[in-house]
Amino acid sequence: MLKLTPLQECQRCFGIWVNAQAFERICADRERQADVLSAGQPPAPKMVAGPVRYRPCPQCGQLMNRFNFGHTSGVVIDKCAEHGVWFDPDELRRVVDYIQSGGLEISRQQEATERTEELRQMDAQSRIDNISRSFASSEPDALGIILRTLGNILR
Questions:
Q1: Is residue 62 within 8 Å of residue 90, measured between CB atoms?
Q2: In terms of pTM, does the model score above 0.70?
Q3: In DSSP terms, which residues pair with 67 in a beta bridge?
Q4: Quick one: angle between helices 91-100 and 103-136, nearest 10?
Q5: Average pLDDT, whole number, for the chain?
Q6: Which of 16, 19, 43, 151 could be 128's S-S partner, Cβ–Cβ 3.0 to 4.6 Å?
C-alpha cells in the first residue's frame, strides 16, 4: 500500500496488482502519481523476449487482456476489465511517467481526431452513395458514370 493507493505487491516477482478504481484514481490524480513515483520500487529485471503470456486475473481467474497503455506508451499492461491491472516490475512507474509527460492526453486527442476523420469519411461516402443510387435509377449519363466511379474508388 502506498500512502494513498491500495495495491498488492508480489514478493516473488515484484509485480503489482492495482484494483480498477485505484488505477483510475492514479491516472486522474497527480498526488497519487507522485505517491507512485516516490515509492522505492526495485529496479526492473532484464527481460528476455519470449512467448507472450496472458496472465489470469488474481481475483476471478479469467485471462486478462494485454494492451499498450495509451496506445503509444510502449508499456504493455495486463488488465481485467472488471477487477484491475497487473504491472510487471517498473511498469506502474513508467505508466505514471507517461501520464505526467502528457502522453495520455495526446493519445486521447489523437483518438478523438481519428474518430472525427473516420466519421467525416463515412458521411462523405454515404453522400456519394446516395447520389450514385439516384443516378443509377435513371438513364446513365456522364455525371452518373463519374459519380458511380468516384464512389467505387472511395470504397
A1: no
A2: no
A3: 77
A4: 70
A5: 83
A6: 151
77 SS3 class: strand
* Strand segments (E) across the chain: 8-9, 16-19, 65-68, 76-80, 84-87
Which regions of the chain are under pLDDT 50?
Answer: none
Find out whether 75 and 98 touch, Cβ atoms under 8 Å. Answer: yes
Q: Could you give the angle at the alpha carbon of 30 between the alpha carbons of 27 and 34, nearest 5°?
A: 105
Q: Are 121 and 59 in contact (CB under 8 A)?
A: no
C-alpha grid cell, residue 4 = 494513498
**Cα angle: 105, vertex 106, 110; to 5 degrees:** 120
- Greatest pairwise CA separation for the chain in angstroms: 77
Per-residue model confidence (pLDDT) at position 147: 73
pLDDT tens column, 41-85: 655 556 656 788 899 999 999 999 999 999 889 999 999 999 999
Q: Can you give the pLDDT at residue 152? A: 76
Q: Grid coordinates 486527442 are at which residue?
A: 109
